Amino acid sequence: MNTSPGTVLAAGASLDFTLAQQLTVIALCALTAFISHMALAVFNDGVRPFMLDFIQGRTTRSATTAVSFGLSAGFIFGLGAPMALASGVLNPWLLFLPTDILGLLSPKKWLAPILGAGWGAVVVFGLNGANNVAHDLPVDFLTAMQEMSTPILFLFTLFPVLAITKQFGRKWGAIAGVVELALVVMTMKLWPTVFAGAIAMAVGVLMLIGLAIAKDLKQRKADRANGVEELAPADDPMASLFSASAARLRRYLPLFMVLGAGVCLLAQMHIFGGGEATSFLVAKGNYSEAAQVDFYRVFGFIPLIATTALASGAYGIAGFTLVYPIGYLMPNPILAVIVGALVFAVEVLALSYIGKFLGKLPSVRDSSEHLRSAITDSLQLAILFGSLMAANAMGAGLGILIVGGLYLLNEAMGRPVVRMAAAPAAVIVGGILLNVLYWLDLFTPVKG
What we know:
Layout: H1 19-37, E1 41-42, H2 51-55, H3 61-87, H4 92-105, H5 111-135, H6 141-144, H7 149-156, H8 159-168, H9 170-190, H10 198-225, H11 239-251, H12 253-268, H13 276-283, H14 287-312, E2 315-316, H15 323-329, H16 333-359, H17 362-412, H18 419-439
């Protein structure tokens, strides 16, 4: 795979969808809004803990909607939309965070899918128009935003190293770093058509999981030697809550199977990427590498999604996100629908068992938290660096001044836009401003 800064995305950063793709997006947005209205699942992990109070009637629909909007708006407009425009590939922040909000906002059950379908129509019909207009501007900031792909892909490779360092110290972190660097260099030399970070990420994640399991097994052996007994399920105060939540989700198993089928089908169409790095890999046509990247991310989110779902009674719109990598690799839509439905069925039925299993492996559970933190840290730097590269491509020093200045201003103001979304949003605002300066004859676009 050619991952140089000048790489042209296979998708051409185009958001021109076929009729089947348009209908799939609209139908899936309608379904996810309906499921959100029923408080059965939401995409935003930060909203899920608030769902228990809503389900049990201790808070209102409007209050829960306000929480969802407050936690999601920055990601929708600062990350989801810019990433889709830059890569030409849809993403979950653009599709599922708005349907979280619209579903919760809807006062009637029948209205929720209509609102969700409306948002899906806005995405598939409106985004392409905005994309075409932006590409026709004197300062084409969307093409410049493709500069973000290289730092995102390569810096994301380091997230297992960061997680190992945070959990197991500098020595193991240094070892993991050396191993990953050697694997990246080796891959670039021996297999130049393969994404250089794929093997390195796989080994890094396996090292982290191996260290965590070894630590847990050692601790359990020590506890048995000291006569420490595990807490019986009947004595666990969370057991009854977890059991009730799991039972509630199982009652709606057919609906979850339809949801799994829809998400897997969308991924199979290759117009959707489950993450920042994945979006650019899908856009370049590297579906197997995209599947690897999203598969590694799963380990960071299974414990979070399982525990919050069991505690709140609301699942994740994408489940454990396993349907993303599976969908990328499916050879046809029919198989994607069948496999996606089965994967969600297994996830929902196994939820309580997964919760009990994770309770016995605290270090593995901690590893997921470190993985999520490391993913965020690596992507924040990658997105900031890539945004500055985009700023330089569209406006040289003036572009860097505007985009970097907007980012710093956001920091100084207490981050009204979340940090990860602030830099891409600044690129779009900066691009619009540079076009205004061009029309005022105060700026000459960078050639190249």
